[in-house]
């Protein structure tokens, strides 16, 4: 591989990691919108509105070609599986939002990158390097430090978030596989179409009235969340699932910021220590991936 080719590979890797960080930052904003409305409205109803808005935008962008590509896709079962996995993860995650603080929810949910790293080795045969193991471990330890887990009370909300982390990790593996042959907009459209149909069947029979504020938060969540979904799939094209899972940790910081700004949740001093560890994990992984790319190249 030439030096120019190496530069392109390095650029793709760093671009993928940057897209992953950007996607999970958008998801943090999205979670804050959902947290604001899930206290007073059922999670299925919120997910229905969000999926309706994202589906409409995808159709406006992709038009008939989008429907054609989905109908003729060879990945229908994988797409369906990913849609069901993400739906299960989000329903449990946002239902737990009634009882947990935003920072607590996010911290528990970030067991997912560790699971993604392990599952990527099992199902995608990705190499489990020492750097990836170390970055995932450092990041998760930073999450625990920031969260002060001694303050957690184990109950159904906690169990639901941990189960959501497992489903999300499985969905990440499926996304990485599907991304090799499907357009990003097809994946985003199909996922939200699945959510729209299922959540419609659940939410419409027991629909609750919503005021303008609640609807506004749902639409805001849809716009930010849809962009986050699109960015995440694009990131999956650039970097392995194990790497993409680890960069999720960077969004932890935003959960504490938004928790403080919008919900009056004051971070403890341990948050700053944990945040430094999270940043260290991300930098370690970025440097390691860059070095690994260079070691594969014989530059004359």
Automatic annotation (TrEMBL):
Pfam families for the chain: EamA
InterPro entries: EamA_dom, EmrE-like
Subcellular location: Membrane
Membrane-topology descriptor: Multi-pass membrane protein
Alphabetized UniProt keyword annotations: Membrane, Transmembrane, Transmembrane helix
UniProt key word Transcription regulation: no
UniProt KW Transmembrane keyword: yes
Major localization class: membrane
Limits of the EamA domain: 15-146, 156-281
Entry's transmembrane regions: 12-34, 46-66, 78-96, 108-124, 131-148, 154-174, 186-208, 214-236, 243-263, 269-287
Entry similarity comment: Belongs to the drug/metabolite transporter (DMT) superfamily. 10 TMS drug/metabolite exporter (DME) (TC 2.A.7.3) family.
Protein name: DMT family transporter
Species of origin: Devosia albogilva
